[in-house]
C-alpha cells in the first residue's frame, strides 16, 4: 500500500469537532493543510461554518475565524468528504458509564460511517481515549465494513491526545505525539504525518495497544499525583506546615532520570478526562482480573476535596465569629481548572452546593464561563461583574484563578466586602508576598494546605 499522505498537498478529514477535534483541525489548517471537519452536531457545524466557535479556549475562536476565511477549513455534517481525504483523524467523545465501561456509541457510529467512505491509501488516526484493545478489536472491523482491509488497503494508528484545556493551541504544536500503528509501516506513516504537518516530535510505540495505554497512564498519573498533593495539603494543615513549601522543596531534589514532580493541591479534579479515564483503565484492568487500587484511592481522595474546601469556608467563617447561614460567599472562578471556561464535572459545583446547603448566600462569577451554562449547572444567576459578586461578602472564595483576575483591584474589592472577610484560596495559587498583602488589606487568608 502507498500512503496518500506523502503527497505535497493533502486533505485531512477531522471527525468530531469538540475540544480536541477543533484544536487539531484549526492547527492543521493554520499550517496550510486543507481540512474538512465533520461533526454530527448541526448547530456546532453551522457556527463553525460562520467562523464562530463556542469553546472558550484562549485563541481558538480567533483561529477558527481565520482558517474559515482562508478557506483551509470546511465543516460539514456529511461524511462523504471522507473519501476525498488522505488522512482521517478521529476525535469523537468517549464517555464512560458509572461502572467505567466505555459508552461506545460515538466511536462505533464514527468508525462505521468512515468505513463506508474509505478508499485505498488512506490513513485513519484515532485520537479518542479508549480502553486498550478498542482500536484493533472494535474500530478496525467497523472500518473494514466498507470492504477494504486494514493494513493492506488502508492504515490505522492510535495517537493519544495530551492537550490540556486553557493551553491547548500552544500544546498541540509543542507536545510530542505518541504513535502506535497497526504495523511498523503504518506507525512510521503516522509519525511522518505529525512531524510534517504539525511540526511536532513523535514518540513511537510498538503497538496500538501500547499507545492506547500511554494515554490512560498519563491521566492515571496526573489524578494520582494531584491526590497525593491534596492529601499532603490536608496533612500539612493538621501539623501547621505550608504544603506548598514542602512541595517546592521536594521538587527541587533530583530523582532517577528527572526530579520528583508533585503537582499542586486544589479544590478537586474535574473536566471531561481526569474524572473518567482512570475509571476506564480500572474497568479494563478488572475485566482481566487485575485490581488497580491506586485508581480507586486517587479518585476518592480527589472527590473528597470539594467537601473539604466547603468545610474550610464554614470553619473560617466560624473563626470570624459568624456562620454560613448568616454569610454571603462570593465565588470567583467556577471552571474545573484555571484559565478555561469549561464547567464539565467542575469540582466547584459541589463546593457551591455544600455552602448553599449550609445556608450561605452564594454569589458566583466567572468571566470565562458561558452565563447560560452557569445558570444550567449551578442554578444561580451569575453576577454581572466581580464587584457585584463581592459586595457585602463575608468570604471571597477563589475556586479557579484566571489570568485576568490578576488585574483585580484587591483593595477596591476589600472596600466592598463585609468588615470581616475570609479569603479562601482554593487553588493554592498565591505566593507569600501576595498573601501578606491580602492580610494587610484586612482579609483573613486561608488556603488549601496553608
Ligand atoms: N478535552 C480534552 O482536554 C481532551 C484531552 C485529551 C484527550 N481527550 C479525548 O479526546 C476525545 C474527544 O474529547 P473532546 O473533549 O474533544 O470531546 P467533545 O465531547 O468535546 O467532542 C466530541 C465531538 O464529537 C462529535 N461526535 C459524536 N459522535 C460523532 C460522530 N459519529 N461523527 C462525528 N462527530 C461526532 C460530538 O458532536 C462532539 O462535537 C475523547 O476521547 C477525550 O477523552 C480530550
From TrEMBL:
InterPro entries in alphabetical order: 6-PGluconate_DH-like_C_sf, NAD(P)-bd_dom_sf, UDP-Glc/GDP-Man, UDP-Glc/GDP-Man_DH_C, UDP-Glc/GDP-Man_DH_C_sf, UDP-Glc/GDP-Man_DH_dimer, UDP-Glc/GDP-Man_DH_N, UDP_ManNAc/GlcNAc_DH
SMART domains on file: UDPG_MGDP_dh_C
Residue stretches making up the UDP-glucose/GDP-mannose dehydrogenase C-terminal domain: 330-432
Keyword Oxidoreductase: yes
Keyword NAD (UniProt): yes
NCBIfam families per the UniProt record, alphabetical: NDP-sugDHase (TIGR03026)
Family in the record: Belongs to the UDP-glucose/GDP-mannose dehydrogenase family.
Matches recorded under PANTHER family: UDP-N-ACETYL-D-MANNOSAMINE DEHYDROGENASE (PTHR43491)
Stated name of the protein: Nucleotide sugar dehydrogenase
Phylogenetic placement of the source organism: Bacteria, Bacillati, Actinomycetota, Actinomycetes, Streptosporangiales
Amino acid at each position: 500500500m502507498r500512503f496518500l499522505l506523502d503527497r505535497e498537498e493533502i486533505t485531512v478529514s477531522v471527525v468530531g469537532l469538540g475540544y480536541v477535534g477543533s484544536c487539531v483541525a484549526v492547527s492543521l489548517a493554520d499550517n496550510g493543510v486543507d481540512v474538512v471537519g465533520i461533526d454530527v452536531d448541526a448547530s456546532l457545524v453551522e457556527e463553525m461554518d460562520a467562523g464562530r466557535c463556542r469553546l472558550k479556549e484562549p485563541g481558538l475562536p480567533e483561529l477558527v475565524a481565520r482558517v474559515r476565511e482562508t478557506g483551509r477549513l470546511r465543516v460539514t455534517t456529511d461524511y462523504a468528504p471522507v473519501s476525498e481525504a488522505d488522512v482521517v483523524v478521529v476525535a469523537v467523545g468517549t464517555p464512560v458509564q458509572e461502572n467505567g465501561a466505555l459508552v461506545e456509541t460515538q466511536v462505533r457510529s464514527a468508525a462505521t460511517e468512515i468505513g463506508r467512505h474509505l478508499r485505498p491509501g488512506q490513513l485513519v488516526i484515532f485520537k479518542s481515549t479508549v480502553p486498550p484493545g478498542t482500536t484493533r478489536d472494535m474500530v478496525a472491523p467497523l472500518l473494514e465494513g466498507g470492504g477494504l482491509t486494514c493494513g493492506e488497503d488502508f492504515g490505522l494508528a492510535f495517537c493519544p491526545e495530551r492537550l490540556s484545556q486553557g493551553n491547548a493551541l500552544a500544546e498541540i504544536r509543542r507536545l510530542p505525539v505518541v504513535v502506535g500503528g497497526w504495523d511498523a509501516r503504518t506507525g512510521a506513516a503516522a509519525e511522518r504525518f505529525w512531524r510534517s504537518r504539525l511540526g511536532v516530535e513523535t514518540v513511537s510505540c510498538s503497538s496500538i495497544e501500547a499507545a492506547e495505554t500511554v494515554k490512560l497512564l498519563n491521566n492515571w498519573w496526573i489524578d494520582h499525583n494531584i491526590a497525593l498533593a491534596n492529601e499532603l495539603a490536608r496533612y500539612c494543615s493538621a501539623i501547621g506546615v505550608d504544603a506548598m513549601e514542602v512541595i517546592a522543596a521536594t521538587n527541587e531534589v533530583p530523582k532517577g532520570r528527572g526530579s520528583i514532580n508533585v503537582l499542586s493541591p486544589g479544590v478537586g479534579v474535574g473536566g471531561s478526562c481526569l474524572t473518567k479515564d482512570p475509571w476506564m483503565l480500572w474497568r479494563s484492568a478488572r475485566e482481566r482480573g487485575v485490581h488497580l487500587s491506586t485508581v480507586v484511592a486517587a479518585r476518592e481522595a480527589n472527590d473528597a476535596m470539594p467537601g473539604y474546601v466547603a468545610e474550610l469556608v464554614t470553619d473560617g467563617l466560624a473563626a470570624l465569629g459568624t456562620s454560613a447561614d448568616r454569610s454571603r460567599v462570593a465565588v470567583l472562578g467556577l471552571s474545573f481548572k484555571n484559565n478555561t471556561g469549561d464547567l464539565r464535572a467542575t469540582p466547584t459545583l459541589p463546593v457551591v452546593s455544600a455552602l448553599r446547603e449550609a445556608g450561605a448566600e452564594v454569589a458566583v462569577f466567572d468571566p470565562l464561563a458561558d452565563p447560560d451554562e452557569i445558570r444550567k449547572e449551578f442554578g444561580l444567576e451569575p453576577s454581572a461583574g466581580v464587584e457585584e459578586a463581592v459586595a457585602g461578602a463575608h468570604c471571597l472564595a477563589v475556586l479557579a484563578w484566571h489570568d485576568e483576575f490578576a488585574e483585580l483591584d484587591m483593595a477596591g474589592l476589600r472596600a466592598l466586602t463585609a468588615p470581616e472577610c475570609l479569603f479562601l484560596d482554593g487553588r493554592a495559587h498565591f505566593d507569600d508576598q501576595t498573601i501578606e498583602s491580602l492580610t494587610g488589606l484586612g482579609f483573613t487568608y486561608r488556603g488549601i494546605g496553608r
